[in-house]
Design brief:
The protein contains eight helices and five strands. A five-stranded parallel β-sheet has the order 1-2-3-4-5. It has 190 residues and is α/β, with parallel strands linked by helices. Strand 2, helix 4 (79-85) and strand 3 (89-91) form a beta-alpha-beta unit. Helices cover 45% and strands 9% of the residues.
Amino acid sequence: MEVKMKYWARALELLGPNVMIISEADDLASQNRCLVSPELYRKLNQAPAHTKLFTFIKKHAQVPVKIFYHSCGPSRSCFPDLIESGIDILNPVQVSAAGMDTKELKKRFGKELTFYGGAWIPSACCRQGTPQEVRDEVKRRIDDLAPGGGFIFITRSTTSRPMCPPQNIMAMWETVREYAFIGGDRELQS
């Protein structure tokens, strides 16, 4: 943490007012569960360390900044601690991981977090699904996460690997353009 604090002190000095988002990352989970319980996360001092680091960053930034935090997997049980520590944006919302129901996550944490991702279309859908199944999946994620704001649609590179047919990638892109909030003054359509 001390190394990160020195790094961010220098980076924030160099960036001056030209920064809006600070990115930090720790994978707290595997595909099926958190790597540690929330209690152990707190006991190992990870939660206080995050709080100290994120407070330091926000205090030393020359302009207000948001903390973008990356953790793959179903790290949901640590969300309250992460929110308390100062994160503003969570990436990704790994919908293929256990317990990561997007509708429930938005309901429970949508006032405190911006969800960056959540359009992580399961690889099987992208690779083997029809363009209509991809469209349905994209609409579902937008319906779940976009109402009220706090959702940035982005998919993971795993869904756009060469195994994913081009028509499915285009179906995803076209659905986002047709269905989602794009451009600043359009209303979310449903």
